[in-house]
Amino acid sequence: MFDLREALGALAACKESSKLPVLVSIAFQTEKDGGRTMMGDTAEQCARQLAEAGADVVGANCGDLGPAQMATVVATLRAHTDRPVLAQPNAGRPTLVDGRTVFDLEPGPFAQGIIACIDAGARLVGGCCGTTPDHIAAMRKSIEKL
Known about the structure:
- By secondary structure, the protein is an alpha/beta fold.
- The chain is built from five helices and six strands.
- It has a four-stranded parallel β-sheet with strand order 1-2-3-6. A two-stranded antiparallel ribbon has the order 4-5.
């Protein structure tokens, strides 16, 4: 989700209709000052309000951050919630090439960024836009070494 208010609405609907755990993940546009969404919501606001509203997991995915930059957001989320933190970064920052959105981060650096997210406090990890089976395999191999 790109907006905390929409995420809170979706969370409320999920909690109302199911007893399953609800993971809420926010897309961040910048890691500056701990992270902000395109709507200006801070990672701290997201962590606190989502946890208070009953999210079982709070996370970051997609947005305009690569995995290394996402680690900064993960650290902020971790500092402001007791819930598990999820990180699912893109395979790099999106760029427009010949009318197509391209994610050009290779699997090795992607996996290194995932380790930075784990070091920052993420307990669930994965990949979003541009990730391939090779990215996930590199991530798994790096995690197994921890």
